[in-house]
Amino acid sequence: MTTEHWRSFVGAARYEFRMQVRRPSMWIVLSVLGVLSARLFESPWNWGRELGPDLLLPEWAVRLNWFLPIGVGVLLADRVPRDRQAKVDELFATLPAAGGGRLLGKYVGSTLAVAVPVFAIHAVSMGRLAIHEGNGSFLPLALATFAAINLPALFFVGAFAIACPAVLRVPLFQFLFVGYWFWGNLLNPDVFGIPTTSDTLLTPVGSYVASGFFGQGFGLYWASDGTVRDAMLSLALLTALAAAVLVAAHRYLVWQQARQ
Amino acid sequence: MEIAVQGLTKVYRGNVRALAGIDLTIPTGMYGLLGPNGAGKTTLMRILAGVLRPSAGTVRIGGHDMGTESGQRAVKRVLGYLPQELGLYPDLSAREFLDYIGILKGLDDRAARRRRVAELLAVVALGETADRKLKTFSGGMKRRVGIAQALLNDPRLLIVDEPTAGLDPEERIRFRNLLAELAGERTILLSTHIVEDVAQTCRDLAVLVGGEVRFRGTTADLIAAARGRVWTMRSETATGRPGDHLTVVSTLHLGDGVQYRLVGARPPATAEPAEPSLEDGYVWLMRGQLAAVAA
């Protein structure tokens, strides 16, 4: 990474984070989805004391990943087109800072910003669970499940939400993304009998990571036989896909600029 | 830092020709660019700033070839650019926006960057509103933020497109004075519709019409071109307008009639000669162009 890439990465990450974290719509949408998740699956403190935090925490992290990333994908979709609409892209084109670093900074900054309310939802749940359990000794494990299960999902979704609207119109991307999310992550192939990436290593909801790193779960769509190797492979595949789509978006934007 | 443009052509999709092979040399100092809407001024500015690529021709700035990546990078390090339509992030404050642009312009030392931002906010008279979100700013205030961001890196080359649009008269004068102070070792290219801005700040200028350079020289040359073609004429009523062979530059309603300032080759019998201004020179030039097109 050159100095100019690093500079544009740092600047974009810092200010994209600030702009995204100040959006009231982000807090509203993710709070609604968090409450929906808690109502739909019941809260972990209602799942039964006998299960214990070792089972509860990865399961809860996976369940949060069912709906919260939908909000994340929808909310981040306007980040690249917004520069064009706000007409700041012309100014950026005249700056020495590199476009690739700026795109990466935009991705990291805005994805970290949406991770804040997701973490807040997770933290509130864990706080409630700690009160219910009467101790908070599981909190380090809760942090680990957030880092290993929730964050990769957000960064995977964030990469597509930043990259794809460089090519697609935002509402079209949002429509396709929501469709993909249900088809590719929540649809049980055994029940519906159609091909899907659900329950494969390519699903970002984190079932393989959960079972591979944290042991067997007890939920519905779990890859309950996932190994540590599966978990590593799943994370590597998701990271590679996210990187590939960002590189493709960067090349497209450079090509588009050159055509002007 | 001299700008040398040769055979510069820009054809947009749909075969719209914005620049038709222009040659221009812009020396160090203030340089004005005038022309009617659609003359190609903004296209020229955007090519010089590295936003657009030309369809043909070459641009060298300070010896750097803008047709190469390395040349563009070298120029962008010393460039300050104010686009005609400057976009801002509405949810950032003026201070934050300038800090962001400062980082991207390579002002790496945080303390120095903050000092520079504060200094420029004071220069554009936004010190007291620096922490308000940009979405609450008026058009003129946004324009001043744009001026401040263009100056952040103390640029050796400053390209400003309609910089005073939306500014009130006091701000306009302050900005013109600022530009005049900045000139010297810098190259400042000022594109505007407001002839007065060029008259007050530039010694040299070019006039673009239909993608071609129709005049290049000093402001004195353009003023001299209108000498003997400018008149004032008084009329009892506004219905006593002079004929179409003259351009009315201004109409002043007096208590007992109307005074016209006219530019044209043949004056009415009652007209008196007047000392030409740059605006008169520009109007005379444009009249010549329009006549040529009509012929």
Write the layout of secondary structure elements.
The complex is a heterodimer of chains A (260) and B (295).
Chain A: H1 3-21, H2 24-41, H3 53-76, H4 79-85, H5 89-93, H6 99-133, H7 139-163, H8 170-186, H9 189-192, H10 207-214, H11 228-259
Helix pairs in contact in A: 1-6, 2-3, 2-6, 3-6, 3-7, 3-8, 3-10, 6-7, 6-11, 7-11, 10-11
Chain B: E1 3-12, E2 16-26, E3 29-34, H1 41-48, E4 56-61, E5 64-65, H2 69-77, E6 79-82, H3 94-104, H4 110-123, H5 139-151, E7 157-161, H6 169-182, E8 187-191, H7 195-201, E9 204-209, E10 212-218, H8 219-225, E11 230-235, E12 247-254, E13 257-263, E14 272-273, H9 278-294
Parallel strand pairs in B: 3-8, 3-9, 6-7, 7-8
Antiparallel strand pairs in B: 1-2, 1-4, 4-5, 9-10, 11-13, 11-14, 12-13
Helix pairs in contact in B: 3-4, 4-5, 8-9
What do you see in this structure?
With 260 residues, chain A is mainly alpha-helical. In chain A, 75% of the residues lie in helices and 0% in strands. Chain A is built from 11 helices and no strands. Chain A has helices at residues 3-21, 24-41, 53-76, 79-85, 89-93, 99-133, 139-163, 170-186, 189-192, 207-214, 228-259. The longest helix of chain A has 35 residues, at 99-133. Chain A is globular, with a radius of gyration of 19 Å. With 295 residues, chain B is an alpha/beta fold. Chain B has helices at 41-48, 69-77, 94-104, 110-123, 139-151, 169-182, 195-201, 219-225, 278-294, and strands at 3-12, 16-26, 29-34, 56-61, 64-65, 79-82, 157-161, 187-191, 204-209, 212-218, 230-235, 247-254, 257-263, 272-273. In chain B, strand 12 and strand 13 form a beta hairpin. In chain B, helix 4 crosses helix 5 (139-151) and helix 8 crosses helix 9. Chain B is globular. The model of chain B has no long low-confidence stretch (mean pLDDT 89).
